[in-house]
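re: the backbone from monday

yeah here it is again, tokenized this time
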């Protein structure tokens, strides 16, 4: 890995965009590495949470267009979607984090532009400094966010705000991003705040967290009837799982639960 680093401690993966000399601008290799890391973490049933942040002065300044244009053939290849996933390489670099069945938290400081916004939107929660700078920068160049950002931005902020940010390409602060619903919480130290939140979830059943993420994400595009059916099936399954019983005993005895690895879906 050249541009993405990862370490796991106590079930929490700390993922870092690691190209600080370029403000963590996204090279095509970065996209491949993001996909590889996300898929590896998805297979780890002992994983409890993921925190994505950037090394150096910024979270991510967007796509490194100059570097990408030096290999136009790779760009063409990256645009071709995988039919079994429905995403191309640009989209999968973000959407792969939505597929991980644990809470994913973005910790944002400095610049969060273009593709950086779309990576942050792939997280379930976003912590940011009040003075961080956010922009759906693609509009400045006459294009649109195409790394799954249209879908994620609309889900998180609503259609009107999504259209405004996409059409204007305006730069807003982390504080303003929170007001618009783009940021979950403002913090002086986003990584510390995100880690504390992740640690607070360690006492919750990993199976229940996975079900909650899957059901809420699915409810955004499903009918009420289908969502109700998924609720029922998930609840019946959870009631029979070992981790649910472990948590019940821990609550009754006022002790800390020692969970087993997350059950297979």
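seq for it, each position gets an aa:
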């Amino acid at each position: 890995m050249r541009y993405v680093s990862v370490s796991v401690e106590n079930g929490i993966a700390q993922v870092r965009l690691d190209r600080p000399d370029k403000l963590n601008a996204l090279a095509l290799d970065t996209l491949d590495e993001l996909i590889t890391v996300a898929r590896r973490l998805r297979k780890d049933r002992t994983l409890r949470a993921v925190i994505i942040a950037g090394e150096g002065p910024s979270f991510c300044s967007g796509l490194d267009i100059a570097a990408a244009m030096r290999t136009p053939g790779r760009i063409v290849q990256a645009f071709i979607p995988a039919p079994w996933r429905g995403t191309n390489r640009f989209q999968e670099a973000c959407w792969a984090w939505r597929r991980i069945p644990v809470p994913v938290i973005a910790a944002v400081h400095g610049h969060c532009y273009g593709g950086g916004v779309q990576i942050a939107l792939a997280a379930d929660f976003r912590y940011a400094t009040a003075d961080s700078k956010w922009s759906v920068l693609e509009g400045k160049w006459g294009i649109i966010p195409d790394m799954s950002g249209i879908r994620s931005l609309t889900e998180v902020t609503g259609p009107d705000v999504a259209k405004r940010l996409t059409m204007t390409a305006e730069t807003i602060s982390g504080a303003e991003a929170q007001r618009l619903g783009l940021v979950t919480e403002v913090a002086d130290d986003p990584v510390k705040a995100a880690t504390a939140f992740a640690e607070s979830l360690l006492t919750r059943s990993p199976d229940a967290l996975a079900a909650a993420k899957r059901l809420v994400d699915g409810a955004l595009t499903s009918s009420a009837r289908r969502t109700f059916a998924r609720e029922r099936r998930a609840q019946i399954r959870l009631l029979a799982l070992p981790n649910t019983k472990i948590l019940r005993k821990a609550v009754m005895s006022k002790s800390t639960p020692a969970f087993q690895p997350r059950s297979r879906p």
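The chain is about 45% helix and 15% strand. Strands lie at 4-9, 12-17, 49-54, 104-108, 111-113, 125-128, 133-135, 172-173, 185-186.
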